[in-house]
Amino acid sequence: MFDSIYTATVTAPQFFIMAGTALLSGFLYAWLMSFRVRSAKRFFTVAAVLPFMIAAVITFVNGNIGAGVAIGGAFSLIRFRSAQGSSDELVTILIAMGSGIAFGMGYIGYGIVILIGMAAIYFVMSLLPVFDHKSMSMDKLLRVTIPESLEYTDVFDDTFTHFLSSYESVGVKTTGMGSMFRLSFKIRMKNPNEEKQFIDELRMKNGNLEIAILPYTDPQNQL
């Protein structure tokens, strides 16, 4: 089961055995991942067929260095035309690609183990509270929009000191065609029940422009 089904020359029956196994395993894998990854139906359709597509490419390249370089260039172009997904979507794609390589080399058993085994591991790990830290869940992302005329360096310091146990600037971004700034802070409230009073006091200082308090997540999504 864990030996490659391919011989020196890939025959049609060998290819179709690989294709059927990759497609069935990919469908089961996408179905299992759909219980833990929040994404559109189209994404899981892609995840289901991706192992076979990668396997077909590996099969057709089959030692041809020139074809391998060409395929690598094509994949790099696809990357730059694709929007970045969430970490869950990225790991789903990476697992599917890893199994596709195994299928493409004829290792049907290893391909199934990678797909179904990693889906099961991901499912179980997402249920376990092993990486949940209560102190980190208290962190919030504060976004404050201010007019460009406002000196933002220390304008909110007294408000932050009163309502927050800790705060840290994580970025500044221009918005509104450069007429405004959007400030981003990692904050932790002293008392979560005072969130409305905190926002009201910020509104008096930023001219009643947009203010948002969000869960603190990935630094790349903060601005």
**What is the average of the pLDDT values?**
81
Shape: elongated
Q: Roughly how many Å is the radius of gyration?
A: 25 Å
The rounded distance between the terminal residues' Cα atoms is: 50 Å
Spatial strand order of the main sheet: 2-3-1-4
Helix content: 40-55%
- The total of helices stands at 8
Key structural traits:
4-stranded antiparallel β-sheet; 223 residues
Describe this structure in words.
- This protein has 223 residues and is α+β, with helices and mostly antiparallel strands.
- The protein contains 8 helices and 4 strands.
- The chain has a 4-stranded antiparallel beta sheet with strand order 2-3-1-4.
- α1 (12-33) packs antiparallel against α4 (87-104) and α4 (87-104) runs antiparallel to α5.
- The longest helix has 22 residues, at 12-33.
- The two termini are 50 Å apart.
Break the fold down into its secondary structure elements and pairings.
Layout: H1 12-33, H2 41-61, H3 65-80, H4 87-104, H5 108-127, H6 134-137, E1 140-147, H7 157-163, E2 164-175, E3 180-189, H8 195-205, E4 211-215
Antiparallel strand pairs: 1-3, 1-4, 2-3
Helix pairs in contact: 1-2, 1-4, 1-5, 2-4, 4-5
Short description:
By secondary structure, the protein is α+β, with helices and mostly antiparallel strands.
